[in-house]
Amino acid sequence: MKNIIVWSAMDFMGAGLHSAIIESGLKPVFVSTTAELEFVLEADPTVPLLISLLDSSYSPTEKILWLNHHVEDVKGKQIALLLKHQHKSLVPELLLHHVQMIADNARLAQLHLTLLQMVMNPGIVSSMGTRSTERGKLTQMEKSILRLLLDGSDIRHVSQQLAINYKTAQCHKMNAVRKLGFRNSAQLYQNLSGFRSFIF
Is 30 helix (H, G, I), strand (E, B) or coil? Predict the structure, then answer.
């Protein structure tokens, strides 16, 4: 029986989901913290990963940001997100072709099939595209700009505070947007509060 890492509070796993995992020939290994997750990922880098955004141990944004921040570490891994429909808009473009998304209203048959595909067809999730090369560590200037944006400044005010040209500030901001895997500034602003651990 092959393991599957399940990032979710154990008491939140519904009986239906638990049985779908078992029926797919998978043995769930539950983790509830990022430290536990990183430990089991190190121990077995090939094991599939199911991330539930439906529990309360971490917010959906925190889990998606963790995954986006570690996307190079889990490259080639089978990953599925169990999420509510409204959470789909939080998933950065960088992750769209790397994870399977399972809506919370999916029928158990669909869930079972997805899990089965993760085990039987390890190449079913397309590998990272060319956009992954655009992702990298934030520079100090990019972090400074994000910090000021997080404090409520707009980009024009940021350029004045940092004594740089407005277009230069805008360019650094868009580089940060791209590196974090988001499609546009609107998505950046929507998820800005989740970046604290990356920019402080």
Answer: strand
CA distance 62 to 182: 14
Q: Which two tokens stand for residue 15?
A: 């009986």
Going 168 to 171 to 172 to 173, the CA torsion angle's sign is positive
31: β partners: 7
Q: How does DSSP assign 64-119, residue by residue?
A: HHHHHHTTTTTTT--EEEEE-GGGGGGS-HHHHTT-EEEETT--HHHHHHHHHHHH
Q: Decide if pLDDT at 90 tops 90.
A: no
Residue with the bigger pLDDT between 49 and 126: it is 49
Tokens 């090939």 belong to residue: 46
Half-sphere CA count of 4, side-chain side, radius 13 A: 31
Q: What is the pLDDT of residue 161?
A: 92
What pLDDT digit, counting tens, does each position of 17-52 carry? 777 777 777 888 888 888 899 888 888 777 888 888
Amino acid at 15: A
